[in-house]
């Protein structure tokens, strides 16, 4: 027996072209349905269900993943393997175990690996000959909780494979506790012309900060940082002195100074120098002397980029023999080496100075008031080799 050719479009009864035995309708061959509507609807519903059910299962899995601490039943070593992909539940469970003191030193080391970057050695590829220069060790760590501190310890600077004694040179270290960043500048002594290989060996550490002090090291990594540098030319090829008549006139209007008693500590005398929209970068050493001294005494290096404004304060006790009723001379001596260390191409090659600056006993005198005298410095001014600062 042959199967029917189709289905009646009126009652969906299986039939051949002609009269429907169920409802009596006359149906031509072209009007027969290939499948009944109820079957088509069933197929559509089945497809919708096949699409929705997986979504429901995924949503339930996410709810269970976030709402149920399933990680507490897993061993610590398994969680350490999963922490790279599952920072949420896994990370919280690992930190809870760390806070509870149940992690071994090896597990603690592995826990903080993803949050600690390898230190890098940064600097210029080329430096001038016969002057000290700075290289930078940058070390970042972003642990999930705070506060932390990272740093380089037991570091040793080497040039061309030979250790360098840096005990007489300062290193500058800026730490930001919120981001756990160490920015350490290391002075390298003057080198001869040619190519040199600089290496810094040390231990990068991550420590937990507590109210009582710094706890034991949580993460440590022995590192060797290196880079090649080329030493050539003179400092004059890296920084250029500028002091046009227009810049000199603008500098006279841009810099002012005064000396007064500290309003908080009346026994301290303060020199204040105000900068307002500098016409060109200023890089130099601030020096001062009183009427009782014949030679100028260096106070501190200063650097201000072009267009900058602000106030620098210098505590003068006990560096100078101060007579509160007298006056003092102050000058800013330009220094191309300071300009080079601050990575600026130009610097103002003029001596900014104040003669017989009165020492105010009135603590209300806080703002610098007297404008500076400016004279163009000779182009062969000697380099200031002092690399330290106050």
Poorly predicted ranges: 173-178, 379-390
Q: What is the H/E order? A: EEEEHHHHEEEEEEEEEEHEEEEEEHEEEE
The number of helical segments is 6
- Helical content stands at 10-25%
Radius of gyration over C-alpha positions, nearest whole angstrom: 38 Å
Intertermini distance: 109 Å
How many strand segments? Answer: 24
Account of the protein in words:
With 390 residues, the chain is α+β, with helices and mostly antiparallel strands. It has four domains: 1-34, no CATH class; 69-114, no CATH class; 116-233, Immunoglobulins (Immunoglobulin-like), CATH 2.60.40.10; 237-376. 19% of the residues lie in helices and 39% in strands. The chain has six helices and 24 strands. The chain has helices at residues 37-67, 76-82, 89-99, 105-112, 245-254, 336-341; strands at residues 6-7, 14-15, 18-19, 26-27, 120-122, 126-127, 133-140, 148-159, 162-163, 171-176, 181-188, 194-210, 213-231, 240-242, 255-261, 269-275, 282-290, 297-304, 310-315, 327-334, 346-348, 350-360, 370-371, 373-376. Strands 15, 16, 17, 18, 19, 20, 22, 23 and 24 form a nine-stranded mixed β-sheet that branches. A five-stranded mixed β-sheet has the order 6-13-12-8-9. It has a four-stranded antiparallel β-sheet with strand order 5-7-11-10, with no helix packed on it. Strand 1 and strand 2 (14-15) form a beta hairpin. Helix 2 crosses helix 3 (89-99). It is elongated, with a radius of gyration of 38 Å. Residues 173-178 and 379-390 have low confidence and may be disordered.
